[in-house]
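[agent] plan:
  1. take the single chain provided in the ticket
  2. run structure prediction with default settings
  3. attach structure tokens to the ticket
  4. add a short note for the reviewer (M.T.)
[agent] executing step 1
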Amino acid sequence: METKPVVSSKRALRVGTQPYLSAKPLVWALKKIAPQVEITEHNPRALSSLLVSGKLDVALVPLVTVLRHPDLAIVPGISVSTIGKARNAMIFSKVASADIKNILVDRSSVNSVALIRALFRIRWSMQPLEVLSSNPLTPDYPFMERDYDAYMMIGDNAMNVKTEFEKTIDLGEQWEQWTHVPLVHAVWAIREDIQGPPIDKFLLEAKKHGIYDLGEIIQHATAHLGMEKEQCRQLLKNTSYDLKKHHVKGIERFHYYMEAVKICKPQLTLKFYHGDHVKVHNLIKEEN
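[agent] step 2 finished; step 3 output follows
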């Protein structure tokens, strides 16, 4: 199956990325490699909305966005994924896990909100009240002064929480224990009507340079994000920027659970961008 999208040459390619440290290796060298592109940073929820509405052409969006909008094509070979503990997607609870009755979730997130719904309902047989925060949650939020049992946070903010809680739950660790496959947090997604420069080529080149420059990225994060060097090093060490067969297995498993909790339709194909055409990958229907 092939499509031949059309692009306007009258404007710069609009690229959206996430502001978190885990995404930095994918965009660290992007402006140098592709000076013609227009790059903006937004949180995952905003990126999803902007890409789907056509206000961005390419964006590093949560995996669940692609699963819910199968017209979007994924750039092959690139993701932001983890296997096991990463601390960039966390539940902080004032009570024991089994006693969580309500949870305030960071409105910046899409993937992690979907994941906790699957974890609570399917793995833990619980259904706490989920409340979407009115603003992104930050480490200085007055957690103990509010009446929520637990809080879900993502990205650098989750890594910088200093408040002492009864229980902390790393969503990446929980996913790995549950499924034994990678947790794919984000992928580069392209609208179906976009074509222009070899988008996949310069995104792959930027990834290569970013991984090579991890030392510089860690130094920058330590200086500008108020994070400890070892904390930054550990996060980037635990993050994979590939999209290989075992990552696709992770996508298949994630889709299975998203369908089970009614977040995604039983759409079992992914589109992978290859310049002037897309390739379709049929996801395997799991019985689990």
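[agent] step 4 note for reviewer: Confidence is low (pLDDT under 50) at residues 1-8.
[agent] ticket updated
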